[in-house]
UniProtKB/TrEMBL annotation:
Alphabetical keyword list: Carotenoid biosynthesis, Oxidoreductase
Taxon lineage: Archaea, Methanobacteriati, Methanobacteriota, Stenosarchaea group, Halobacteria
Record pathway: Carotenoid biosynthesis
Listed GO MF terms: oxidoreductase activity
Residues annotated as domain Amine oxidase: 16-488
Stored NCBIfam families: crtI_fam
GO biological process: carotenoid biosynthetic process
Pfam family, one: Amino_oxidase
Protein name: Phytoene desaturase family protein
Length: 491
C-alpha cells in the first residue's frame, strides 16, 4: 500500500499526530503537520525560563517496548535519537501517616516490602504480577496493537480464545482486593490509574496490566526528558519528509476527500486528506461545520473526562534530597479525593499528588546549585480556577509538602509558574480543561471510544487520546499507527 502523491495535513503535533505523520510519510504521502503553539509535542510542551527546563505534561517514560516497536518500523531504535536511564527507585511514596516506601527495580526487594505490610503479600505480589504480565501480553497483542474500534471487530475466534480469563468487566478496586487487604498495598497497585484518568472504582480491571509496566518493564528517564522524545520523533519525521509548521492555529476544516481546506494563519492549506490530532471534541464542535459532525454537544457534555490538574513549576535554591525523581504523596484514604474528581467535583480537601524532580537525574534542567521540580494535583475537569483559589491552594500544597515530605520550599523558590484547568483549555483547546482526554471507564474503553474515521466526511480522520487505544504517550504512538492504517486501508 502506498500513498504517493497524496497531500495530508495533520492538525496538532501531540504524540498521536507525530506518530501518524511518520507512518503516513513512510507510506509515501506528502505530510504537513500544523501546530497551534510555538513548539511541537501538544501536551508534551516544555517550559524554559531563567535556566530552568520543565516537561509541562507527561514526565514518565513507561512501556519502553512500545517505543522500540515504533522506531523499529522505520528500521531505527530509540537510541538513535535519545538515551535512556533507568530510575532507581522507580518512585517514592510518602503516605500522610508518616510512612515512606520506595518501589525499586529489584522485584525481590519489592516482595520483601509487601510482606512487611501483610503476611503472604510478597507471594501475592508475584501472583498479581504474573497475571498482570499475562494480561499485558494478551491485551497488547489482541486489544491494543490490533485496533478493535468496532463491536464487530470482537467477533472472532482469536478474541474469544484470548479474552478468556482477562478481567474485562470488574473494577480495579475489586480486582486488587482479591490479592491485598492492606489499604497501602492496594494504593501502590492502583496509583497508575491516575495516568489513565480514572479511579479504582470506574476503571476496568483489565488495566491491571499497568502493574507489569510499572514493576517489570521499569521506569526510565529519557535524555532531555519527554521533550527529548518529542524532538527525536520530530527528527524522524523530518527524515521521512514531514513538514512541520508551528504557530498555525486552525480555525476551520471544510471540504471533502481530495478537496479539503484547512483554514488558519493568513491563508488556507489545501489537502487531499486531513487527520485531526487536536482534541476530538474541539475538532467537532469548533472546526467542522455542523453537517460534518458525528457527535453533538450533548454527547461531549455527557462524557466522563480524565482529571485536569493544578500544576506548580518551581525552580528552587539547593537540592531536595528527601524526594526521588518521581514522588507520590498519598492520603490514608484517597477515595475522598477520587470522589472530588468524579462524583462531587471540588478542589480536594486532602489531595493525593505527584512531585517530579528531574534535577535528581539531569543536571541540564536547572542552573548549578538549584533544583527543578513540579507539583501535580489531579483535580476535576471544569472546576473554576481563578487567581484567588489558585493562591489559596498553592499555600495548602506547599504546607502539605513540608508536613509530609519534610521539604520546605517557600523561602527557596526563585522561579514559579502555575498551570490549571483554564490553561489546559486555552493552550490545548481541551474539553473542560482535561489534562488527558476521555477517561478509561468501562463505557469509554475499546469500541466505546470515538472512531479514527469520520463517518460523516470521507478523507477525514482522528488520532490522539480520545480514540483507541487511549490515554498516555505509548497509547497515542500506537493510535497513530491505527489512524495511518485506516488511511492506508481506505486508499
Amino acid at each position: 500500500m502506498h500513498l504517493a502523491g497524496e497531500s495530508i495535513v495533520i492538525v496538532g503535533s501531540g504524540f498521536g499526530g507525530l506518530s501518524t505523520a511518520c507512518y503516513l510519510a513512510d507510506a509515501g504521502a506528502d505530510v504537513t503537520v500544523v501546530e497551534k503553539n510555538e513548539q511541537l509535542g501538544g501536551r508534551a510542551s516544555r517550559l524554559e525560563e531563567n535556566g530552568f527546563r520543565f516537561d509541562m505534561g507527561p514526565s514518565w517514560y513507561l512501556m519502553p517496548d512500545v517505543f522500540e516497536r515504533f522506531f523499529d518500523h522505520f528500521d531505527r531504535t530509540p537510541s538513535d535519537y535519545y538515551g535512556l536511564q533507568q530510575l532507581d527507585p522507580h518512585y517514592r511514596i510518602f503516605f500522610k501517616d508518616g510512612d515512606e516506601v520506595d518501589i525499586l527495580p529489584d522485584l525481590e526487594r519489592n516482595k520483601v516490602l509487601f510482606e512487611s505490610y501483610e503476611t503472604g503479600a510478597g507471594e501475592e505480589l508475584q501472583r498479581y504480577l504474573d497475571r498482570s504480565e499475562e494480561n499485558y501480553g494478551v491485551g497488547m497483542e489482541y486489544f491494543v496493537y490490533t485496533d478493535r474500534a468496532r463491536f464487530r471487530d470482537y467477533i472472532s475466534w482469536d478474541v474469544a480464545k484470548n479474552a478468556r480469563g482477562l478481567n474485562l468487566l470488574g473494577s480495579m478496586q475489586d480486582h486488587v482486593e482479591n490479592y491485598f487487604d492492606h489499604p497501602k498495598l492496594q494504593q501502590i497497585m492502583q496509583y497508575t490509574l491516575v495516568f489513565l484518568g480514572g479511579s479504582p472504582n470506574n476503571t476496568p480491571a483489565i488495566y491491571n496490566l499497568m502493574s507489569h509496566v510499572d514493576f517489570n518493564l521499569g521506569v526510565y528517564y529519557p535524555e532531555n526528558g519527554l521533550g527529548g522524545v518529542v524532538d527525536g520523533i520530530a527528527q524522524l519525521g523530518e527524515e521521512l519528509g514531514v513538514e512541520f509548521v508551528t504557530e498555525y492555529e486552525v480555525t476551520g476544516i471544510t471540504g471533502h476527500e481530495g478537496d479539503f481546506l484547512v483554514h488558519g494563519g493568513e491563508e488556507s492549506m489545501v489537502a487531499d486528506i486531513v487527520v485531526s490530532d487536536a482534541d476530538y471534541a474541539h475538532t467537532e464542535q469548533e472546526l467542522l461545520p455542523p453537517e460534518a459532525r458525528k457527535h453533538d454537544a450533548d454527547y461531549w457534555e455527557s462524557r466522563t473526562y480524565a482529571p485536569s490538574a493544578f500544576l506548580l513549576y518551581l525552580g528552587v535554591e539547593g537540592d531536595v534530597d528527601e524526594l526521588a525523581h518521581h514522588t507520590l504523596v498519598l492520603p490514608e484514604n484517597w477515595n475522598e479525593h477520587f470522589d472530588q474528581i468524579f462524583e462531587k467535583p471540588a478542589w480536594p480537601d486532602d489531595p493525593a499528588y505527584y512531585l517530579c524532580v528531574p534535577s535528581k537525574t539531569d543536571d541540564s534542567v536547572a542552573p548549578e546549585g538549584h533544583g527543578n521540580l513540579f507539583v501535580l494535583v489531579p483535580i476535576a475537569p471544569g472546576l473554576p480556577d481563578g487567581d484567588a483559589i489558585r493562591q489559596k491552594y498553592r499555600e495548602k500544597i506547599l504546607d502539605d509538602i513540608a508536613e509530609n515530605t519534610g521539604v520546605e520550599l517557600r523561602d527557596r523558590i526563585v522561579f514559579e509558574k502555575q498551570f490549571c484547568v483554564s490553561d489546559f483549555a486555552d493552550r490545548y483547546n481541551s474539553m473542560q480543561g482535561t489534562a488527558l482526554g476521555l477517561a478509561h471507564t468501562l463505557m469509554q474503553t475499546g469500541p466505546m471510544r470515538p472512531r479514527h474515521r469520520s463517518s460523516k466526511v470521507d478523507g477525514l480522520y482522528f488520532t490522539g487520546s480520545y480514540t483507541t487505544p487511549g490515554i498516555g504517550v505509548p497509547m497515542c504512538l500506537i493510535g497513530g499507527q491505527h489512524t495511518a492504517d485506516a488511511v492506508l486501508e481506505d486508499h
